[in-house]
Amino acid sequence: MQAKQLSATRDGFGQAMVEVGYKHPEVVVLSADLSESLKLAEFKREFPSRFIECGVAEQNMMSVAAGLALAGKIPFITSFAAFNPGRNLDQLRVAAYSGLSIKIIGGHAGLSVGEDGATHQALEDLAIIGALPDIEIVVPADSKQAYDLTLAIAQRQGPTYMRLGRMKLEPLDQYTAVDKTKFGHAQILQAGTDLTIFCCGLMVQQTMQAAAKLSDINISAEVINLHTLRPLDEKAIIDSVKKTKTAIIACEHHLDSGFNTLIMSVIAKHMGRELIHPVAIEVIGTTGFGESGKDAQVLDKYGLNSLAIVKKTKLLLAKKLRLSLG
Amino acid sequence: MIDRSRQQLARLAFTLRREALSMIYQAQSGHPAGSLGMAELFSALFFGKILRFDPNRPDWEKRDYFLLSNGHISPIYYATLAYAGFFPKEELASFRQINSRLQGHPHFTLDPHKRLPGVENTSGPLGQGLSQAAGIAMALQIDQRKNQVFCMMSDGEQQEGQTWEAYQFITHHKLHNLIGIIDYNNIQISGPISNTMSLGNLKLKLMAFGMKVYEVDAHDLTKLLAVLQQAKADQQQAKVIIAKSIPGKGVSFMENDYKWHGKAPSDSEYHQAISELAIKEKMCKQSN
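YS: structure for the whole thing
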């Protein structure tokens, strides 16, 4: 396996925005003094009149974007997820109620802004957005996927949230021949029979590493990257748990909300219909707030790594036995 | 000729007041004080040749945009839109009722079945309208279009930090195609503004933010029309009009009483209010 160059999802986003700019003349970008962090320098250079600096004023930025959308523009609203949607939920809620085509880009999400600490580690953004109706949600797992999803969301009607990270990640095709990213479709990175691991964002590469370790001990894991959380590919989720009767759900987010609850509610909804057996579930995510440290140190401390997935697999398979599913 | 038209606008302001109050009475819910206080402004904006619009083409690309930020005064806004021909007057009776396009606070939607023609933005949560207006003004500038954007706000919503973020944005980006209007009636839900959360010297604050500030009596149509025309013609600076109004204007027992911010009248209060307004409306006709 040849090592490939590491790249963050924000890099793929920034590159894609230049192409989006050329393809869609109505696209404008708003920034709350974080254009460098969101990799928007090239867009700014190519389309200076369509780059709108808002200063450190995220609430105004969101409503300005609503106004731009009302006048026919497609605004990409960029800041850190801790503030966007963390600080401008009310403004977003009003814009979403109008069904406007606005694209909310939450950068530096999750624990993996290491040194900045808990104030900047957005672990609730998917819950905030998920609590609002009709906002599509994407969480790319690598730079290339961020590129593809950026192009995809630019041409979708209505509001969309995209969660991006700062940490440089291995490309997905490091592990496997990956299907082309298709908005709204789960990406099955590895087929398996003993358990399913649903993941998104940086947990995808951790999951692939865990799956390799599990394979060494003859445990066959199915790995499903849910890069689109809304609309959620319910069929892919149900088809997989029908087969494996087990699921690990892994996301760099609070455990009590967001990714976990979205997937568990799909499983619960189909129970007694397409699903006629229980499903054993383990979850991986955070409880409480984060803290400062190197990305890898923080992720390790909070159990967001491949080792944690392997450990959870053992618990999960024991549950499976107890439920007489195995 | 000008005077005659001014009299017509004055009369219309009272007609709109009656409509607004009837809507609130029928719904037994809504906000009378601000609605009554802004009647002359709505009359001037929509019928005094200030706003460019075509009720048969609500999306006409050359229209001026009017955004209501203090969405709770929707009764007077809806009455104005109906009288301007955007939708049938009969529909005003559905205000705040189930299955209505006349939501308690204005709802802009792309859904053709729910959309109320003439409404340009969703409002209600205070402090957002000026930012929305700034976004529209920015889009117009990017596209080099000549339309102008008007945004009506309340004085209470100047307490929202976002409003000041918006002034900052407007002056920084030189959005000279935007005109803010503040209904300065000095009441909010809990009492007088000065007791609840004083705005201090609002005019000086706005000037310090780089805004050109006009002050006007919100019930003097001659002055209102003059200041609106002047603000519209001045495209060299960011502008805001402080319109000093009497909350509840036109109904003796509602005037200057903060308790009428968001309360519907009882049967007897309603009948008294309507007869007072009818007399004043008639007086406008007589002096015509």
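YS: worth flagging: The mean pLDDT of chain A is 96.
IM: good catch. Also The radius of gyration of chain A is 19 Å.
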